[in-house]
Write a structure and sequence with these properties.
The complex is a heterodimer.
Chain A: H1 2-6, H2 18-25, H3 35-62, H4 95-112, H5 117-143, H6 148-172
Helix pairs in contact in A: 3-5, 3-6, 4-6, 5-6
Chain B: H1 14-35, H2 39-61, H3 64-80, H4 91-109, H5 113-122, H6 134-144, H7 148-159, H8 164-171, H9 175-199
The chains are: A mainly alpha, B mainly alpha.
């Protein structure tokens, strides 16, 4: 150990590293990406993909609705604010879904508050897109309550919304890169 | 660099303390100027600290080109984080923490551990030891061949003098783990150096 303390703690690089540093710091300022931010940006990208998928599916199928599909009894559960029904069955959302949604919704604002303004706006926009799709699908179901396709789209949109909120919740618990220097 | 006068235990050393304080004030002034986007001031901080940072990066990575990249990245990160420098420690110490983070981050992405060991043996030693002692050169080589985790702890604690608490904080490990890794490093170094002595 005494010998180790005698070892030099300094060394000069063989070349001058300043030009590379100067070039980098003179570039237009870019926010330092941390693991935290990178995770949120990735989450927002996934959310947009899911939201886009839900919306796109709905609008794609809008003109292709088939009236020959077997009728399905419209239940109270198929609303923007779903009432309870059995979770897991094809056209119903159950108490398990409602509990999960309630829990995740209550902590969503807290998790979103930890994001950068840009990431927060991206996630809110994505959730709004999904909720707009839910509203539009419900409106379409009023005109065509028997459409199993619309009912399936609605169920998927609710699941997408839950999935987004779960991702936000999950990423909030993920380890961060150390930034406390 | 100005050399400090040796101080006998128990005697006040207001001269060195005043000198150290003055250097700290100067350094803080440069940091304030750099914070105001004065790149010339930041270059001054770079020139004053690059050897310390590069030396640490070289010891931790064991690879010259990797150490150069880590050094550059550390200073670039420091530029963007100048607002976080509170002046509680010397700027060089703060840079050490950034450099350790950079080295660890790059190693997590890199799978060149085996290449590193080969690279060290092929490249001429870049570090200058304080005493031209064959024993120290053997120690340098033995340190470079330590497993990564043990090497990091040994370098920070035994070479740079950081406490186990500070070492653990910089490496993201518990203090107890730091102590265990140091014990492991010592054991491996003794084995390595004893086998070399036997060979000679």
């Amino acid at each position: 150990m005494a010998k180790a303390a005698k070892l030099s703690t300094s060394a000069s690089p063989a070349r001058d590293l300043w030009p590379g540093i100067e070039q980098a710091i003179n570039k237009p300022a870019v926010p330092v990406r941390t693991g935290w931010h990178a995770g949120w940006v990735q989450a927002a990208a996934v959310v947009l993909l899911i939201a886009g998928s839900s919306g796109l599916t709905y609008f794609t199928m809008r003109g292709e609705r088939q009236s020959t599909l077997s009728p399905v009894v419209q239940t109270q559960a198929l609303m923007v604010e779903p009432a309870s029904a059995s979770f897991g069955s094809r056209y119903n959302l159950g108490p398990g879904y409602l509990d999960a949604r309630r829990t995740l919704s209550s902590s969503l604002d807290e998790h979103l508050a930890r994001l950068s303004p840009e990431a927060r706006a991206a996630v809110r926009e994505s959730i709004k897109t999904i909720q707009d799709a839910i509203r539009d699908i419900n409106n379409a179901l009023v005109e065509d309550p028997g459409s199993t396709l619309l009912q399936e789209l609605l169920i998927n949109a609710y699941r997408d919304e839950l999935s987004v909120m779960k991702q936000v919740d999950g990423i909030a618990d993920a380890a961060m890169y150390r930034e406390d220097i | 660099m100005r050399a400090a006068k040796p101080v006998k235990a128990g005697q006040p050393n207001t001269g060195v303390e005043a000198l150290g304080a003055l250097e700290t004030v100067d350094e803080l002034r440069w940091v304030e100027m750099a914070r105001a986007a004065d790149t010339a001031a930041f270059e001054k901080l770079y020139r004053d600290n690059v050897d310390k940072v590069y030396g640490l990066c070289l010891r931790m990575s064991g690879n010259v080109s990797e150490a150069e990249d880590c050094t550059q990245e550390a200073f670039i990160q420091a530029w963007h984080k100048l607002d976080m420098f509170r002046g509680d420690s010397a700027f060089g110490t703060w840079m050490h923490r950034i450099a350790v983070n950079v080295v660890l981050g790059r190693m997590r992405k890199s799978r060149r551990e085996q290449d590193r060991i080969r690279a060290v043996s092929e490249v001429a030693p870049a570090l200058v030891t304080m005493a031209d002692d064959g024993g120290l050169r053997d120690l340098e080589q033995a340190i470079n061949e330590l497993p990564r985790s043990a090497r990091h702890v040994f370098v920070l604690h035994a070479v740079y003098g950081y406490s186990h608490g500070q070492t653990g904080e910089m490496l993201g490990i518990a203090e107890g783990t730091s102590k265990a890794q140091l014990h492991r490093a010592r054991r491996l170094l003794v084995q390595q150096l004893e086998s070399e002595n036997y060979a000679h």
